[in-house]
Amino acid sequence: MSKDTNFKIFKPNWVVPDNVHALQTIKNLTIDENLLNNDRIQIEDNVGIRFLRSKNKVLNQIHSNISVELPSKSLDADASYTFKKNIICAVRTADCMPILVTNDEGSFVSAIHAGWRGLSTGVIEKTIKKLNPIKNLIVWIGPHISQKYFEVGSEVKEIFLDYDPTYEVAFNQSSNSKYFFSLKTVAEIKLHKLGVKNIYCMDNFCTYANSEIFYSYRRGDLKERMTSLIWIES
């Protein structure tokens, strides 16, 4: 992503098939012709832009491990996937971790909303296992709060270690039985165990630290959200 914080939308920096398109909105989203015609970010993805302009329904995110195949009548979920063209998979975040998924054939796309609750109950695994036997997955981890600023209680650590002791590396002792927790580390461990080799994560991803670029719930942005979206272009 360019360091120019005037950009309101950027494309994830990952290597995916030509038919797979993704966008990430950032702070103070505005869509106008000057933005769309800006050669430096080359935003020509009309399907995604129309989605952002529209009032299309998005997932009713409930910090669960539920994943739905789109189109779906039920949107009470924290992950979606589709094999259909021009169907948008999207999640909205402001500290939680957005994860976009496809494969080297571009035969499907998926968007996952992963906060600590979703991670602890397997939202990543449950979504990817629904896609079996698809292999050669490609994953992009979007903007989220970094370990340095994400302090949690000992009960959160216990939940994760009860599930898998290898998650110990994701926790650094803080004080008063508190820990600094890395969402990214747990996600990467889970993805590696699922056989995912191609994992991309943006630079300077921390929503809390980069106040000029990202919304952060823990920094006080209680209502604003960013959107991560992915689709297969027809």
Describe this entry's structure for a reader.
The structure is a single chain. Helices cover 19% and strands 25% of the residues. By secondary structure, it is an alpha+beta fold. The model is unreliable at 1-7 and 30-43 (pLDDT under 50). It contains six helices and 13 strands. It has one domain: CNF1/YfiH-like putative cysteine hydrolases. It has a six-stranded mixed sheet with strand order 3-4-7-6-8-12. Strands 1-2-13-5 form a four-stranded antiparallel sheet, with no helix packed on it. It has a three-stranded antiparallel sheet with strand order 9-11-10. A hairpin with a 4-residue loop joins strand 10 and strand 11. It starts with 8 loop residues before the first strand and ends with a strand. The relative contact order is 0.21.
Which features does this protein show?
single chain, 234 residues, alpha+beta, CNF1/YfiH-like putative cysteine hydrolases, six-stranded mixed sheet, four-stranded antiparallel sheet, 6 helices, 19% helix, 25% strand
